[in-house]
Amino acid sequence: MANQRPCAPLLEVRDVRVAYGKAEVVHGISMDVRAGEFVVMLGRNGAGKSSLLHAISGLVPMRTGTVRFEGRDLGGARPRDIVKAGIIQVLEGHRVFHTLSVEDNLLIGTYAANSRGDRGKLGRIYELFPELAERRHQMASRLSGGQQQILAVGQGLIGDPKLLILDEPSGGLAPMVVDRILDVASDLCRSGMAILLVEQLVEKALRHAHYGYLVETGRVAAEAFVDELREGDLLQRVYLGGH
Ligand SMILES: Nc1ncnc2c1ncn2[C@@H]1O[C@H](COP(=O)(O)OP(=O)(O)OP(=O)(O)O)[C@@H](O)[C@H]1O
Ligand SMILES: [Mg+2]
């Protein structure tokens, strides 16, 4: 992508603050994901990245600020309605339902659109991730951590998001798993799905993303195209805490 962001805004986050009790951890973040973009959010542990993502997905309330998606204000919307609007977040830590089969876990991802489950959507996910097809009748608890993460991504994708949010898909897993997930995300992005990724494996993330935000203690410290982010000393500052 040339160094110009697509004009069409998809997700518009404006001055969002998030607090747990009295402790504010997101201090007014504004950021965009535009149509067809792959955006990465980088920052150290505890910077507030997941808290912002949870606010976007309606999983934690915002103290102030607005989130708009395709021009529609999502303030106060329930998580289920946010999913229906087209934003699906794959949570940190490969969370799947351990006592359900792989296939039932995937079907859960179709419930927002169809409360009886939509088996017709399984085929596409099995094409993307043949390892899930091979294990479709296995309990999720019997999968490796990497396979569980792939299942969590499949559970998100089967809901046909317009914006897929991935919160640290690497989560302590083998680098190969992360490459698989990010390659699939890049392919989906090329076919029109927008991606918002939070990732600690900075190099891998920058290889796939177009545009990035650096978050430092609840604020955006910098935003730029990924090649500019790579060149500057900001990344080092954010990760090593130097100035
Ligand atoms: N449910 C919660 N209740 C209270 N404090 C929380 C809660 N969740 C997160 N925090 C705190 O909010 C701050 C930001 O956490 P958050 O998980 O958003 O950071 P993060 O950037 O996603 O970090 P990581 O890279 O470790 O995932 C941290 O100080 C964390 O301890
Ligand atoms: Mg996090």
Number of domains: 1
Q: Gyration radius, to the nearest Å? A: 17 Å
* N- to C-terminal distance: 31 Å
Name given to the CATH architecture: 3-Layer(aba) Sandwich
Count every helix, treating DSSP H or I runs of 4 or more residues as helices. 10
Bound chemical compounds: adenosine-5'-triphosphate, magnesium ion
The main sheet orders its strands as: 6-7-8-3-9-10
> Spans with pLDDT under 50 lasting ≥5 residues?
none
N-to-C SSE string, H for helix and E for strand: EEEHEEHEHHHHEHEHEEHH
Gross morphology: globular
User: Count of DSSP E strands?
Assistant: 10
Say which CATH homologous superfamily is assigned: P-loop containing nucleotide triphosphate hydrolases
CATH class: Alpha Beta
Major β-sheet, in short?
Answer: 6 strands, mixed
Named CATH topology: Rossmann fold
Considering DSSP H and I runs of 4 or more, what fraction of the residues is helical? 25-40%
The residue-averaged pLDDT reads 92
Given helix and strand content, the structural type is alpha/beta
Instruction: Assess the beta-strand content as a share of residues.
Output: 25-35%
Family: Belongs to the ABC transporter superfamily.
Domain ABC transporter: 11-242
GO molecular function, one term: ATP binding
Pfam family, one: ABC_tran
